[in-house]
Amino acid sequence: MARAPRQADIAAAAGVSQTTVSLILSGNTDGVRLSESTRQRVLKAAEKLGYVPDPVATRLASSRNHMLGVYTFASAFPTDVDGFYYPILVGIEEEAAALGQDLVLFTGTGGLEAPADDKLAIRRTRIADGCLFFGRQVPEEPIDWLLGGGFPLVYIGRRDELGGRIPFVGVDYVAASAAVVDRLVELGHREIRYLRSEDDAPSSSDREEGVLAAAEKAELDARRIVVRAEDAEVAALIERWRGEGVTAVVVEETDTGSLSAALLDAVAAAGLRPPDDLSLAVLGQPKDHPEVSGFEVPRRELGRRAVRLLVDQITASGPRIAEHVLLDCIPVAGSTIGPA
Amino acid sequence: MARAPRQADIAAAAGVSQTTVSLILSGNTDGVRLSESTRQRVLKAAEKLGYVPDPVATRLASSRNHMLGVYTFASAFPTDVDGFYYPILVGIEEEAAALGQDLVLFTGTGGLEAPADDKLAIRRTRIADGCLFFGRQVPEEPIDWLLGGGFPLVYIGRRDELGGRIPFVGVDYVAASAAVVDRLVELGHREIRYLRSEDDAPSSSDREEGVLAAAEKAELDARRIVVRAEDAEVAALIERWRGEGVTAVVVEETDTGSLSAALLDAVAAAGLRPPDDLSLAVLGQPKDHPEVSGFEVPRRELGRRAVRLLVDQITASGPRIAEHVLLDCIPVAGSTIGPA
DNA sequence: CTGAAAGCGCTTACAG
DNA sequence: CTGAAAGCGCTTACAG
C-alpha cells in the first residue's frame, strides 16, 4: 500500500519546510504571517496528495484530535435493551456530527474478558480527546486515574462515586417520580404500591426517593408502598394487592423494561382494565405502550447534552470542575390513571 | 496531578535505559534476552510508579492502531430504519470486540453538508486501519482514491461500481427471492404479483431478478408479475388484483419497511385473510410480523462477516484482491402461504 | 545481555 | 515571512 501522504510530502511538493505546512494546515496563524502565495501552493499540494492529518500523531504532539470516545461497559449495541440505549446513541451522534467530532467506540470488553481488562480498556480511551461513559457501575480505579490525569470525561446517568468528582448528565427521576405519585394522590388514591426491581442502580433509588417523598408529603404509610420484586412474582402481588384495597400501582421502568412488561401482562391476565379497575403508572416509557401514564425520559437529549458537556470540558481553558446536569422528564398523561 | 510516569521515569528509577524498560514491559522477548534481576527491578519500579503505557504513543510508534472505521452515508443511527440497521451494527460490534478492534464512527456529513464534503470525510477514514462502508450509493471518486492507495475497505451490501473492485459482503437476494416464488408455484399459484418500490438499489433489482428467474422457470407470464408502486397506491392494487384472479402477492421489504407495511394494512383493510383468501410473502422480514412467510436477512452475520473480511484485508501480507461475499438468507415458512 | 539512536507524524517555541 | 530543532512517549532495528 502506498504510504499515506504526510506533511513532509506536501512540504517537498510545495518547496517549503514541514513546519510551514503544519502552520498553514492547522490554521495556526497566531503570531505568524505567511505569504498568500505560499499558502495557496501548500493548500494545493495537500489537496493533490489527498492529505489527511494523522490523528494519533496530532494527539501526541498537541492535545486534540476531534475524536470523542464512547465507552460502554457492556455492549454499545445491546440486543436486549435496544429500545433504551438507541435514542441516546442517536443523540450522541447528532451532536457529535454537529460539532464536527468523530466517535470512537471502545469495544474493550464485551463481557467476555475478565473485569481486570476493563482497566486497560478504559485507559485506552485516552486516545480520544475525551470520553463518554455508560453503564450502571463505575470501575473506580481507572476512572479515578483518568480524572486525576485531567482527562475529560462525562458519564451518562447520575454518578455519585469518587466524591462527586465525576461529571455526568443524568435524569431527574426524583422529581418526575414524585410528580406521578402527586397526581395519583390528587385523584384521591391512598392505597398505592410502588413496584421496583431488586437492582440498586442510582436511577432506581432516585425513583424510589421521589415516590417516598411524595408519599410522605401526602402522609401515606410509606412502609407499605415500596415493594421489591422479580418479574415472576408480579402476578401473585397483583392478587394480594386487590385484597389490600390497592387502587393504584406504580412500576419502575428499567433498561430492559421487563418489570413493567410483567406488570402490564399480569394486570391484563387478572382481567383488570385500567383506569377503571386500577390506576396504573410507569416511571418511564414502556416499549409499545404509549397509552400508559407516566413520564418520558429525554434520552436523545441525554446523548446530546453529554456530548456538549464533554466538548465544553475539552475546550475549557481553566481548571475543570466536575459538572453535574440533571434533565427533566416529560410528563405523559396517558390513559391508565383515573380517580380512586 | 503529577505527570503520569513514563518509561523514562522507570528507567531512571531502575538504573537502566528506556529501551530496556520498553523491551521488558512490552514483553517483546523476540530475539532478546534480559537478566531476570533487571527484569524484576524494572517491573518493580513500574509497579511502584503506577506506570500505564500511553496508548497514543504506542500507536504512533507501531504501525497499526487497531481501529476500524465505520462510515455511513447518512446517519449511523438512523431513526426511521433502526430496525434494519441495528442488527448489522450489533454484528459489527460483536466481531470487532472479539478481534480486539475499536470502532471509529465517522460522523462526517450527517446529510447537512454539501456532498462535496463527503470527499474529505471519506478520506478521513484513513485514520483507521481500514473502514466499513454502508449506503445505497457509492461516491466513486473518494472510494476509488482509497482503493488506489491500497486502503482496506469493505462495503456492506453488494456493489458493482468501479469495475467490481470494491470488496463487499452482501446478501443473496436473487436466490432467496426465487425460492419464495418457487414455493408458491409448487403450491399451484399461477397468478402471482410482485410488488416492489420505485427505488433502484441493488438489493431491489436483485430481488426482482430472482422473482423473474423463478417465474420464467415456471413459464408464468413475466410481463404481468412485476408492479412498481408507492405505498399510497397499494390499496387500489389489491382491489384490481382481486379482479384479475391473483392468488398470491409477493412484496419487497425495503430498509424502511413501509411498502410491506402498506400491503399488510391494505390486505387487512380489504378483509382478506391469508393464506385462505390470498397467499402473501415478503422478501425479507417485516417488522413486528413474524408470521409472514418469506425469508430472514442475516443482518447480524452481515456485520460480523464484514468485520472479518476487513481485518483479513488489513492483515493480508500479499497484494489484496477484491473479495466479494454473498450470504444466504434463512427461509421463513410463516403462515401466510397456502395452496392456490 | 543492554544501550544509543532513529523514527512514528505531528506541534510549538525559537531563530533567523 | 519561513526554517531548523526539540519534543510528545513509545517501538524497533542496530550496535556493542
Notable characteristics:
homodimer; 340 residues; alpha/beta; 434 Repressor (Amino-terminal Domain); Rossmann fold; 6-stranded parallel sheet
CATH superfamily of the largest domain in chain A: Response regulator
Which architecture of the largest domain in chain A would the CATH scheme give at its second level? 3-Layer(aba) Sandwich
Main sheet record of chain A: 6 strands, parallel
As laid out across the biggest beta sheet of chain A, the strand order is 2-1-3-4-5-11
Kindly, what is the distance between the CA atoms of the first and last residues of chain A, rounded to a whole number of angstroms?
A: 74 Å
> What fraction, in percent, of the residue positions of chain A are helical?
40-55%
Low-confidence stretches of chain A: 110-116
Sheet/helix structural class of chain A: alpha/beta
The largest contact between protein chains, plus residue counts on each side, is:
A-B, 45 and 44 residues
GO molecular function, one term (chains A, B): DNA binding
Pfam families (chains A, B): LacI, Peripla_BP_3
InterPro entries (chains A, B): HTH_LacI, LacI/GalR-like_sensor, Lambda_DNA-bd_dom_sf, Peripla_BP_I
Organism (chains A, B): Kribbella sancticallisti
